[in-house]
């Protein structure tokens, strides 16, 4: 009886070292895991999947590592889902969206310390979003926390000299990791479509409140104007 060949042997391009390890290219590894190459790159960069580099800088994956990951998928999925997906969503944000907004006039007016705090606020926003998923917070409490984040967004934007319209545009860009984290979480956990739509609706309500709080904090202090007059 013919023995079943390994996945790597079936692909013809995989290499075997002296220890008998089968090494896969990123294309072969992504096919084995059933994900896209860009997803596998993000997982590798976040330390979720072991990856090695050739002398020429090419990524190589050991088939045994990937098979072990597949066999233990149910355990790490829940252990890594929140922190890992937050990290992955921010990695994607910085690699793609930052390149898009960096050319906007308002972006250069944020100082490095502003951007660092905005990133921290963004992570807090993602954590609030996960509390929606876990139903671990009262709705009013959630909205209050969101408004607090929005107020700080506005204060930072005011310090940077942004107009309300520019601050709104900035927030729309900085909120991207929140949607990314939740959609990736939903995909990994196989959440039913109906519940995903409900979660996204609740998330939109939260983010709308954050945006409104951002804009309110940029409004001139009319009480001070009245007292002076």
Q: What does this protein look like?
A:
By secondary structure, the chain is mainly α. It folds into two domains: 59 residues, Orthogonal Bundle (Multidrug-efflux Transporter Regulator, Chain: A, Domain 2), CATH 1.10.1660.10; 147 residues, no CATH class. Helix content is 69%, strand content 5%. It contains eleven helices and four strands. Strands 1-2-4-3 form a four-stranded antiparallel sheet. α5 runs antiparallel to α9 and α6 packs antiparallel against α7. The protein is globular. The N terminus and C terminus are likely disordered.
Low-confidence stretches: 1-12, 73-80, 222-229
Q: Which of globular, elongated, flat, extended, rod-shaped describes the shape?
A: globular
Q: How far do the termini sit from each other?
A: 96 Å
Could you describe the largest sheet, including whether it forms a barrel?
4 strands, antiparallel
State the helicity in percent bands. 55-70%
> Which structural class should the secondary elements be placed in?
mainly alpha
Rg measurement, Å? 23 Å
Strand line-up in the sheet with most strands: 1-2-4-3
The number of distinct helices, counting runs of at least 4 residues, comes to 11
The number of domains is 2
Strand content bin: under 5%
Number of β-strand runs: 4
The pLDDT mean sits at 79
> What string, H for helix and E for strand, traces the elements in order?
HEEHHEEHHHHHHHH
Key attributes of the depicted protein:
229 residues, mainly alpha, Multidrug-efflux Transporter Regulator, Chain: A, Domain 2, 2 domains, 11 helices, globular, disordered N terminus
